[in-house]
């Protein structure tokens, strides 16, 4: 159950990038980035939000790529020029930390943010087991 969980909040992204508002473009970007990182996509689900009220303003997307190693989640807010990324990989049978970092770096580079806030969390570290009385 050990794994690496990476998150990034991207600010100042170009709202006009197709991946900010077009489901097919974002899905293709994510799947290509997953494959280039050497991870295995199992399934995807992407949802584009409907505009609020009578606005013509482009709306964002929430997308998830289920990985054999765990998941990638992407949320775009073109109206805020923001994106959040979430990459979690389990390291049960192999260490996927470098692949997770490569995936994150590829997606950050695509959105060209002015500012990035990154977090890295090692999950599932095994605690020492108490000694049993003999």
Description:
- The relative contact order is 0.31.
- This protein has one domain (3-49, 58-123): S-adenosylmethionine decarboxylase.
- It has 134 residues and is α+β, with helices and mostly antiparallel strands.
- It contains three helices and six strands; from the N terminus they run βααββββαβ.
- The model has no long low-confidence stretch (mean pLDDT 90).
- The chain has helices spanning 18-21, 23-36, 97-111; strands at residues 3-11, 41-48, 61-67, 70-77, 82-90, 115-123.
- A six-stranded antiparallel sheet has the order 2-3-4-5-1-6.
What shape does the CA trace take? elongated
Report mean pLDDT, rounded to a whole number: 90
Helix content: 10-25%
CATH superfamily: S-adenosylmethionine decarboxylase
The CATH topology comes to S-adenosylmethionine decarboxylase
Q: What separation lies between the terminal Cα atoms?
A: 29 Å
Largest sheet: 6 strands, antiparallel
Q: Which segments are poorly predicted (pLDDT under 50) over 5 or more consecutive residues?
A: none
Q: What is the annotated CATH architecture?
A: 4-Layer Sandwich
- What are the secondary-structure elements, in order, as H or E? EHHEEEEHE
Radius of gyration: 17 Å
Helix segment tally: 3
Class based on secondary structure composition and strand pairing: alpha+beta
Q: How much of the residues is beta strand, in percent?
A: 35-45%
How many domain units?
A: 1
Task: Give the number of DSSP strands.
Answer: 6
Which CATH class?
Answer: Alpha Beta
- Widest β-sheet, arrangement of strands: 2-3-4-5-1-6
């Amino acid at each position: 159950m050990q794994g690496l969980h990476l998150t990034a909040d991207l600010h100042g992204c170009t709202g006009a990038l197709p991946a900010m508002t077009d489901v097919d473009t974002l899905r293709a970007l994510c799947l290509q980035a997953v494959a280039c990182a050497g991870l295995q996509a199992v399934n995807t689900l992407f949802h584009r939000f409907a505009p609020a009220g009578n606005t013509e303003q482009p709306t964002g997307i929430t997308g998830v790529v289920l990985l054999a190693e765990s998941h990638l989640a992407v949320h775009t807010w073109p109206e805020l020029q923001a994106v959040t990324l979430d990459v979690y990989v389990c390291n049960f049978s192999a260490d996927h930390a470098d692949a997770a970092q490569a995936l994150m770096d590829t997606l950050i580079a695509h959105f060209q943010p002015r500012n990035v806030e990154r977090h890295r969390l090692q999950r599932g570290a095994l605690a020492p087991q108490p000694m049993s009385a003999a």
